[in-house]
Structures are given as structure tokens and as C-alpha cells.
Amino acid sequence: MDLEVADNQISEGEFAPDFIMTDSDGKTIKLSDLRKNKKVVVYFYPKDFTPGCTTQAKEFTRDHVIFKNLGIEIIGISPDHHESHIKFRETMRIPYTLVADPEHKIAKRYGVHGLKKFMGKEYLGVNRSTFVIDENGRIIKIFSNVKPAGHSQEVMEVCKSNNG
């Protein structure tokens, strides 16, 4: 088991850590390139096909056109492998990029990989969190300990109030 916990906590107003990802077309892109003309919502979730993660994905999928019309890109990140993401995207008809982070490298840079508790047991994992990043690369809002139901609307309200 990977016992390394994220030791860097990042705050609103700081620059978002850059990372490289592969989009759904297999093209490699950097977060910094993606956000040049738009805001980016980066959300971390624990695992494909689990109830909370499915709820969160359904809501972001439902609202994707609205986010897109506001000039906002959505990226979901979990420790699942690329093959799991392909199945999750196909099954859930997810229109945005899902990033595989099986070694928790991105999660650790964002400070969201850490101790979790479930049914009395402690373990290391991804804490459900969302980061709203502006066109300059600054984090304008961090949502920690996210509750999946209603979260897409919560994020959209922040994006609308920071539009322009």
C-alpha cells in the first residue's frame, strides 16, 4: 500500500499545480494549455462506478452544455486506470475528460490524497474535492469534503459569479 500522504496543501488564490493528461481522443495536453481561454473545473473522486462518484458524474454530465457555454472545461480525476475511465465514460455518457491517476501523483500535488475513514477503518485514498481554476491558472475556489448530490450546481454558481 502506498503510505505517502499529500503534504502540500494548496489554497485559494494560489496557482494550480500543472499536470499532463490524455484526453478522450488520446491526445496529450497540459492543464496550463487547456485553461488559456477558459476556466477549468478539476474534480477529484475516489472510484469509477461507485454510488457517490456516479451521482457526481451524472450531474456534471447533465450540466456539461451549460458549463461549456460559460467557457468552462470540466476534468475528473481518480486513481482508476485508463481502461476503467473508458468504460465509465461510455456507460455514463460522460462528455468531458477523465484522468487516470493510479499512483496519486496529481492528487498529492493538490493535497487531496490522505487519510480516510469508512466503517471504522482508516486507509489512504482520494478525498473528494473540486478546484475552480481561472484563465490565469489561479485557484478561485476549493470545495473540500464534497457531497456529490447537488455539487455540480454549487460549482456552477461559483463559476457564474466569477465570470468575466
What does this structure look like?
- The structure is a single chain.
- The protein has 164 residues and is of the alpha/beta class.
- It has one domain (20-161): Glutaredoxin.
- It is 30% helix and 27% strand.
- It has six helices and nine strands; from the N terminus they run E-E-H-E-H-H-E-H-E-H-E-E-E-E-H.
- The strands form three sheets. Strands 5-4-3-8-9 form a five-stranded mixed β-sheet. It has a two-stranded antiparallel ribbon with strand order 1-2.
- A hairpin with a 5-residue loop joins strand 1 and strand 2 (28-30).
- The relative contact order is 0.24.
- Mean pLDDT is 88; it is low at 1-6.
CATH class: Alpha Beta
Q: Could you tell me the mean pLDDT? A: 88
Number of continuous helical runs: 6
Give the amount of beta strand, in percent: 25-35%
Order of helices and strands: EEHEHHEHEHEEEEH
Looking at CATH, the homologous superfamily is Glutaredoxin
The CATH topology label is Glutaredoxin
Major pleated sheet: 5 strands, mixed
Rg, please?
A: 15 Å
Q: Which stretches are low in confidence, meaning pLDDT under 50 for 5 or more residues running?
A: 1-6
Distance between the termini: 44 Å
What is the domain tally? 1
**Total beta-strand segments:** 9
CATH architecture descriptor = 3-Layer(aba) Sandwich
